[in-house]
Please model this.
Amino acid sequence: MSSAKVLLVDDEKEFTETLSERLRMRDLEVFTASSGPEAIDLSGQHRFDAVIVDLQMPGMDGIETLKQLLARDADQQIIVLTGHGTISRSVEALKAGAAEFFEKPIDIQKLTDVIGEAAVHRLTLLEERSARAIEDVLRKKGW
Amino acid sequence: MTNNASKCPSGSRAQIEFYGRIMANVSHEFNNIITVISELAGLLKDLSLAARKGRPVPNEKWESLSDSISKQVARGKHIIAHMNRFSHSSDEPRAQVDLGQALENVRVLTDRLFKNRQTNLSLSGSLEGISLSTDPFELRRILFACLDRFLDGAATEVTVVAKRQEDGGKTELEISGPVSIAAEDLAGQIDVLTEQARAIGSQLFFEQNGNQIRIRLVLPSNRE
Model:
């Protein structure tokens, strides 16, 4: 899963800087955002294979951020990575549309595997969506 | 805290809740620190492997990673020192307390709560040399309870002004800022705060002007 494009969203700057450096060493293209609004802004400029979001952030929290990201792109694969890992928070995140939920710290190999799976899943969703769109056109045109 | 709780069963639940909120906040901070250190350790390992495979790593990179780890350790030690001071605040039901240190203790241990709500806490007036004979744990609890009123709302700027009253050497803390909670909910909260203040021999005054509220906490004399 080389050159997948990833967005890391976390207000701990040292964390995003270090993790992004490690992910880049593993051939991933990494962007960082320190807040929900910054992440939403970046998602308008780039198509990310996976977005990794913390739950507790100043201002807009992770749940609201993931809801807004999904409202813009329903196929967006969002991985919640938080230090605030209660069962109720994980249920809340998954109900809101998160693809995965993990507690910090996470093993880098596990994270790269999950990013790879998210990217493949996103691609599958996009292919299914375009196949359905083509079928719709064919049905409407009666070809 | 066990001592205080057993002496005041009706308040024990609220005391445990306060302790719990501090612990939850501090444990979250520690997890953040451990996570950053864990990633830095991982990066050190990644770079070592790269260097072993013949990819040179500049000396400055090792130094910068070492500095980053030291910074996180210092951050953790700062919180541990405050957590230790907070834990010992329940040792005695009455002791001489430095008001400035008690307020700083509460501020450090609840820092993330303010950051998450993008609320800036500013202190003006000097608390230097102000010492009170009071219950150290309960003093911290009421200081946090006053500040917490603003966390329930949508305050962006909370101001704490410290003043020494001319008569009797009493100290007044004036805490003000905007809130966005319903007036009836706020009234109930202020009643609880007033009771809490009375329990440590303090007085609490409250004023509301639109969405702005001002809490004045008049603390007991510094004389024994």
